[in-house]
Automatic annotation (TrEMBL):
InterPro entries with a match to the protein in the record: rRNA_ssu_MeTfrase_G, SAM-dependent_MTases_sf
A Pfam cross-reference name: GidB
Presence of the UniProt keyword Cell membrane in the record: no
Family label: Belongs to the methyltransferase superfamily. RNA methyltransferase RsmG family.
Gene name for this UniProt entry: rsmG
EC number: 2.1.1.-
Record function comment: Specifically methylates the N7 position of a guanine in 16S rRNA.
Name recorded for this polypeptide: Ribosomal RNA small subunit methyltransferase G
The UniProt record lists the keyword Chloroplast: no
Species this chain originates from: Pseudonocardia aurantiaca
Superkingdom assignment: Bacteria
Length: 224
């Protein structure tokens, strides 16, 4: 089991044992059941656990947060462990991943909800709309992500997309589409400077106006 390094205590405080337990799940059953690749195990702290937890720098106190396409619980579970003040739901469409997430959440004993579904589905939107923050990591290109995530946010809420080196390119390509969907101008933030190297790259989009609801045909209400 890889060791977390000295900075992990700064991020997780007295919940570091829970973060260790989560990392253990990732490198054992997470690998066995295909949630992360076996080559990821040696760098599970820097690339996954801490890389996600430091996004908490951008999350307001007491926020209601929806993690879209949660997969292996990233970034939702590390955020919940670093920030017990947050109310977090993990949204994931694949049954085998949902089963794993529920097992891990139960083992950790943390107050996280797990929802099987897709962010763009009406039932998911009705249950979780009005969120303060929506997060996503390695889920989809920025324009598609905005189409799924912005309707879940309250006006003024934030979409936080954890990205890699392609962040600036995605903003250049998809920025206009994001604004048409009701988001503000996307910007890039770096999280975790001095804790992880390199810091996490996050594209931040504020919901500025209504995005409309989808009817059963997939069209927005009022659309011809």
């Amino acid at each position: 089991m890889p060791e977390p390094g000295p900075t992990a205590g700064e991020v997780f405080g007295d919940r570091l044992p829970l973060a260790r337990r989560f990392a253990e799940h990732l490198v054992t059953s997470g690998v066995e059941r295909g949630l992360i690749g076996p080559r990821e195990a040696p760098r599970v702290w820097e690339r996954h656990v801490l890389n996600c937890a430091v996004v908490a720098e951008l999350v307001p106190v007491g926020a209601r947060l929806v993690d879209v396409g949660s997969g292996a619980g990233l970034p939702g579970i590390p955020l919940a462990l670093a920030r017990p003040d947050l109310g977090i739901v993990l949204v994931e469409p694949l049954a085998r991943r949902v089963d794993w997430l529920r097992e891990v959440v139960a083992d950790l004993g943390v107050a996280i909800e797990v929802e099987r579904g897709r962010a763009e589905e009406n039932v998911v939107r009705r249950r979780w709309e009005g969120a303060d923050v929506v997060t996503a990591r390695a889920v989809a290109p920025l324009a598609r992500l905005a189409r799924w995530c912005l309707p879940l946010l309250r006006p003024g809420g934030l979409m936080l997309a954890v990205k890699g080196a392609s962040a600036a390119e995605e903003i250049e390509r998809d920025g206009a589409a994001v604004r048409r969907l009701g988001g503000g101008a996307p910007r890039v933030e770096q999280c975790g400077a001095g804790i992880i190297d390199p810091p996490s790259t996050v594209v931040v989009v504020e919901r500025e106006r209504g995005t409309g609801r989808l009817d059963r045909s997939g069209r927005r209400r009022g659309q011809a």
